[in-house]
Design goal:
Layout: E1 6-10, H1 14-26, E2 31-34, H2 37-43, E3 49-54, H3 62-71, E4 78-82, H4 87-95, E5 100-103, H5 108-140, H6 144-154, H7 159-166, H8 170-184, H9 189-199, H10 201-204
Parallel strand pairs: 1-2, 1-3, 3-4, 4-5
């Protein structure tokens, strides 16, 4: 179900808060008002939109709010509003991931452009997060043996080398490889590498030590589910 984006405006200056909210209203945008970063963090539930925060707030400031949002793994973009457009403030804000830094007070055109860009970025981030979660689910659907073959492919190992490492036949590796491609909905090694790097970067790193082959004595199937 589509959830409409919301603008979260954080400013302890009542006049400045009223001005920004009035411009957002004129632009046809929905918003919520907050007078502190702590109040926002207490109520924010990772909904889509963007945050417009003053750099100077009681308690946690706008720059610190950016870092706290990142620490909580929120993807929502932040627009910083400042009455002191100093280079150091702008640089810190951009280093912390701000989409834009606006002067206080700002004009409606500048505000509208910044919000439009932020909402587009928010939608893109959420799309990639959903796609990443879907990829992880597909990778989790692979058997232990298929995941080990997947790691070997990502490491660049040919089928013969993988078969030797895992103590199984080349045909077994080929069958597992076909199963991996089918389950992940891909058709090439390049797609596999891209999928794994995006979904599970910790798996995509080349291993410094190759895992020893561990196989069932009766079936010859690899019993190794994770890299050692």
């Amino acid at each position: 179900m589509f959830e409409a984006p919301l603008l979260y405006v954080v400013d302890d200056d009542a006049q400045g808060l009223d001005l920004v909210c009035a411009m957002l209203h004129d632009l046809g945008l929905e918003y919520e008002r907050f007078t502190s970063a702590e109040e926002l963090l207490e109520r924010y539930d990772d909904s889509p939109g963007c945050i417009l925060a003053s750099d100077r707030l009681p308690g946690m400031g706008g720059l610190e709010l950016q870092l706290e949002l990142q620490r909580r793994d929120f993807v929502i973009p932040v627009i910083l509003m400042t009455g002191r457009p100093e280079t150091s403030v702008i640089v810190r804000a951009m280093q912390n991931g701000a989409i834009a830094v606006l002067d206080k007070p700002c004009g409606s055109k500048a505000l509208g452009s910044a919000v439009e860009a932020a909402l587009a970025i928010d939608a893109e981030r959420r799309y990639h997060r959903r796609r990443q979660a879907s990829m992880r689910q597909r990778i989790d659907s692979l058997t232990c043996q298929e995941q080990e073959v997947m790691r070997q492919i990502v490491d660049g190992a040919p089928n013969k080398v993988t078969a030797s490492r895992l103590g199984v036949s080349v045909r077994t590796i080929e069958n597992r490889r076909r199963s991996i491609f089918a389950k992940l909905g891909i058709r090439s090694v390049a797609e596999l590498v891209a999928t794994v790097m995006q979904a599970t970067p910790e798996v995509s790193r080349p291993t410094s030590r190759r895992p020893a082959a561990v196989a069932d004595a009766r079936t010859g199937r690899s019993l190794l589910c994770s890299a050692s």
